[in-house]
Amino acid sequence: MTTETSTQPAVGNVKMIIGGEQVDAADGQTFEVGNPATGELLAHVPLAGKTDVDRAVAAAQKAFDDPKGWANWSASKRGRALQKYSAVVKDHVEELAQLEARNVGKPISGARGEAFAVSLVFEYYAGAANKIFGETIPVSKPGLDFTLREPIGVVGLIVPWNFPMNMASWKLGPALAAGNTAILKPASYTPLTAIRLGELALEAGIPAGVVNVITGPGGTAGAAIAGHPGIGKVAFTGETTTGQEIMRLAAGNVKKISLELGGKSPNIVFADADLEKFAAESPYAVFDNAGQDCCARSRIFVQDTVHDRVVDLFTEATRKVVVGDPLADATEMGSLVHQRQRERVTDYIAIGQEEGAELIYGGTAPEGAEFDAGAYLMPTIFDACRTDMRIVREEIFGPVVAIIPFSDEAEAVRLANDTPYGLSGSIWSRDIGKALRVAKGVRAGVLSVNSNSSVHTEAPFGGYKMSGMGRELGMHALELYTELKNVFVDLT
């Protein structure tokens, strides 16, 4: 484990962005944001309420209604503005990465990759802006029938604390490309990079009011966005119970919603797989970002004939994961996002032991004075698990993996599907026919064969069942931010 330390200065007080202006909450209230790896205070952030959401909706609606504004720019002009936004973000990758690493507790190497990925998402949707097409439709009556894809208007974008920058770009990119104006609300644990992205949008020349950033708890600011009659669509990424509440609040004015929710993703390992490759890559499929990832392959299903070898290989590889200071280049796993999150995860570790699972690695905080002030936890492996155990059924959102044996292909599919979730997963086999049969059988939205890769900017991302509705990324995401209008012209 690395013992390097960092002494970065505090960020200081920050403000929200409404109508192109940096503003405090209407009532002047703030909340504290800290560094979970050190316990240091980073910033005081405005605590937005309903009045602030009303202000943001008014600003976004004004920008949308402007006859010379964003929604009425040509698609190509919007694309050029998004390309400039991408370039500005690319120029600030290191700054954004430092903010993210300190605010989330994630390794700086990963944060740099994520900041660069944000620029690529904006670059992708810059190119997509003038490729939002309608269609002509042959109809029985004499005339011309065609469709238009039009922006929804003001959209609310609520993003989580595990990947704040990335989730913001996944929503802002297609929303802006389609001509909408947006209210972005980051999680209250991790608002700093979202605020900075709002500032960089203005720097890139995106007009005032097009990107507004509101900060505050989900129960107040988030609920006000979800229920606001002036918002035509809400996109939410976060836990499933909050997504259910978003649905209830959005029902008031029947606004459109898209939800990317929880997961309990399977990693299915057949006896004929490249076991060494699986073992080398798969620790990062569950322990990356300290396991705080809805795509985390937190259930490993291993064919019984190779169970012991896979457990040995996976445990050996896990021992090599470097836990340490998020700002040290060598670190591969930093702290959890907050002490409360670590307490939640350690409660689950105790539950796993009570349920009879065999704890074979981790389960405690790392040793050393450098870890005492942070929300650190060692990568944790349970073996001898059953699908009725809570550590197998419930999303822990921490660095905990459960290993379950299976006998054959049919049982692997049955066990993998024995969950209320259906987001992602992996299948490991040299038999491509078997791998594809299993991929068709597993009820999940994003699957990989001989890989743990879930996210591709160009491809749709989203889940089945309680993992959500709608698809982000790729051209499919544009459907979430457009209305489909049909026009018939009588030519008789």
Write the layout of secondary structure elements.
Elements: E1 16-18, E2 21-23, E3 30-34, E4 41-46, H1 50-65, H2 75-91, H3 93-104, H4 108-128, E5 136-137, E6 143-151, E7 154-158, H5 164-177, E8 181-185, H6 192-203, E9 211-213, H7 218-227, E10 233-237, H8 240-250, E11 256-260, E12 266-269, H9 275-281, H10 283-287, E13 299-303, H11 307-319, H12 339-355, E14 358-361, E15 380-383, H13 390-393, E16 400-406, H14 409-416, E17 421-422, E18 424-428, H15 432-441, E19 446-449, E20 464-465, E21 468-469, E22 482-490
Parallel strand pairs: 7-8, 7-10, 8-9, 10-11, 12-13, 12-18, 13-16, 15-16, 18-19
Antiparallel strand pairs: 1-2, 3-4, 5-6, 6-22, 11-21, 14-15, 17-20
What would a concise description of this structure say?
36% of the residues lie in helices and 20% in strands. The chain is α/β, with parallel strands linked by helices and 492 residues long.
Please describe the structure with a list of short key phrases separated by commas or semicolons.
Aldehyde Dehydrogenase, Chain A, domain 2; 492 residues; alpha/beta; single chain; Aldehyde Dehydrogenase, Chain A, domain 1; 2 domains; 7-stranded mixed β-sheet
Report what the structure shows:
The chain starts with 15 loop residues before the first strand and ends with a strand. The protein has 2 domains: 267 residues, Aldehyde Dehydrogenase, Chain A, domain 1, CATH 3.40.605.10; 191 residues, Aldehyde Dehydrogenase, Chain A, domain 2 (3-Layer(aba) Sandwich), CATH 3.40.309. 54% of the residues are buried. With 492 residues, the protein is α/β, with parallel strands linked by helices. The N terminus is likely disordered. The longest helix is centred in the first third of the chain and has 21 residues. Helix 2 packs antiparallel against helix 4 and helix 4 runs parallel beside helix 5. A hairpin with a 6-residue loop joins strand 3 and strand 4. A 7-stranded mixed beta sheet has the order 14-15-16-13-12-18-19, sandwiched between helices. A 6-stranded mixed beta sheet has the order 9-8-7-10-11-21, with helices on both faces. A 3-stranded antiparallel beta sheet has the order 5-6-22, with no helix packed on it.
